[in-house]
Protein: Hydroxyacylglutathione hydrolase
Organism: Pseudooceanicola albus
Amino acid sequence: MALDLLTVPCLRDNYAYIVRGPKETRIIDAPEAGPILAALKAAGLTPTQLLITHHHHDHNDGVAGLRAAFPDLVVMGPAAEADKMPAMDRLLAEGDSLGDAEELCEVIAVPGHTLGHIAFHLPQAQMVFTADSLMAMGCGRVFEGTFPMMHESLSKLAALPPETLVCSGHEYTQSNARFALTIEPGNAALISRTAEIDAARAEGRPTVPSLLSLELATNPFLRAHLPEVALSLGLAGASPAEVFAEIRRRKDSF
């Protein structure tokens, strides 16, 4: 059976995800318990695993409520942030994996936003859960790491198969698109996508998940290696990491 994916809006602009497979029903991130519990009830699902990407409260404040509702729930998160997280049943690091066959889940270290941030890649299901590392049309602020560190993390994610579905953690896409147009105002794919995003938000529809192929065509943080992007920033000949850093600095003050 193919895995079923539910996108669950939480808080003001967060997302949690529920992935139902033949053996496991996984929740990825828990910004708050209420909407996740409601989605599980509506779908008739009992979760078996809760996977947390990083220590920020808007991704794990719902852990206690979900544990209370489902005492057998196995909660897992980044080993590098164990001291900043709710109690975990299993600590994860890059190279760890969960499940098998279509439910195989690989852990990817994506530090930058936080030092221990991890992503969850389901290669057979062609999904990756990136939270605040790679976002639709953007990337997370570099709070704890460095710009080169974040660039390397995004480069790992960009190397996944282009048909991968990117399940990111926030509804920031519309503002990200406005910024992206300041970097590549002539990018036809970006112009078209921005119009689609505006239409979706006007109707109250989420703009995530998104295909990695679309991110590669329109997300400036994944395009820092392109000479035309460097040229548009006045950085002809600069390294991709240097171009990325300039894009991130501009976004921080946008």
